[in-house]
Write a structure and sequence with these properties.
Layout lengths: L2 H7 L25 H8 L14 H13 L4 E5 L2 H10 L7 E5 L4 H13 L3 E5 L7 H4 L4 E7 L11 H11 L2 E5 L4 H4 L9 E5 L13 E5 L3 H5 L6 H4 L17 H14 L5 H33 L6 E3 L9 H7 L8 E5 L3 H10 L4 E2 L9 E3 L11 H6 L6 E5 L5 H13 L1
Parallel strand pairs: 2-3, 2-4, 4-5, 5-6, 10-11
Antiparallel strand pairs: 1-7, 6-7, 8-9, 9-12, 11-12
Helix pairs in contact: 1-3, 1-12, 3-12, 12-16, 14-16
Amino acid sequence: MKQQTLALHAGYEKDSQGTMAVPIYQTTAYEFRDVEHAANLFALKELGNIYTRLNNPTTDVLEKRFATLEAGEAALATASGMAAIFYAIANAAEAGDNIVCASQLYGGTLTQAAHTFKRFGIEARFFDVHDPEQIKTLVDERTKVIFFESLTNPSIDVADIEAIVSIADEYGILTIVDNTVATPILCQPLKHGVDVVVHSASKYTTGQGLAIGGIMVERKMVADKLKDNPRYPQFNEPDESYHGLVYLDTPLPPYTLRARLTLLRDIGAVVAPFNSWLFIQGLETLPIRMPVHSKNAMMVAEFLVSHPKVLKVNYPGLVSDPNHELAMKYFKDGMCSGLLSFEVEDFETAKAIVDRTKIFSLVVNIGDSKSIITHPASTTHQQLSEAEMLACGVKPGLIRLSIGLEDPEDLIADLKQALEG
């Protein structure tokens, strides 16, 4: 089936009431038939609901539907996009290990990788997303993850997914890709060999800035990469915290299974059932919305390129953009989502332009149906050093736009008056 059909139907078997809409199962716990039933569930001899920190029927539909849209095998929903990234990495790495990350990352992800994981004893090493060969100089026997974004935020670079995956596979290392900006409608990294995809569902998935949540999706046959791989003993050896379970000895997708039974269980950053329901509503229109976001962003980018006060525009849909060729390779019909950025003379000029906009809202979010403007150097990337900001593509005069679903002519007029004000 096509994605638009899957977005409306995947993962949902109508309940006994025949409800067309997925019900919200707003409950913390579930009654077991008897002691044996409860014991079988905990021992994985039977599959079913135990406690909403582990699973929930509404969230189950979200996970199945998202996994289907990403062409993956299984998914794990979380309380936020940052939680999804944390679980995806912590599932593979432990104290003494290292991860190799693209320098061009969202500010929060960069901070989590470079500082928070460091306090857990996991070192982050960085490569330029435009030079995958750098990865070979950074990996060693303790490297557990290569992490990057399919479409970077806010530098708007496109990763050469297959080139990075090829290097990772050469060393037997897992690849994890943040696909938030592109969404599975425009790009499906798992089809290009990526092992795990993560999303902030708070962005395009909900589409209206209604809820915080995240999701992690596992590629089909990840088990083959983990099996007998000395880098990942936690999947091949008994887990003492779960009565000696060996994750690769079960028929279930091992990466999401382990994340659910250990990380979700013990850390508890679980998505609320109501938020899962909101994300399901968003998925139903995602295949319709993403082409409109992309079309509007292209029109805005073409306007900005022609304006004398704009020094540079970052949008891979533009033929002149250095990422254009990769965008044509990896993104459906060359659609490049609704995120773009542009540079003006300096910090103060950027601030003045942001303050003068009327339709654009100054918000540190993206993927909303309403257009958003952000000055990364003073907000999302403020905590970084000047060198770190430049490494991830954030200059003092950079302005990020998340183009919404308004009439693009109105958005262009608003930017024109702000630039010339």
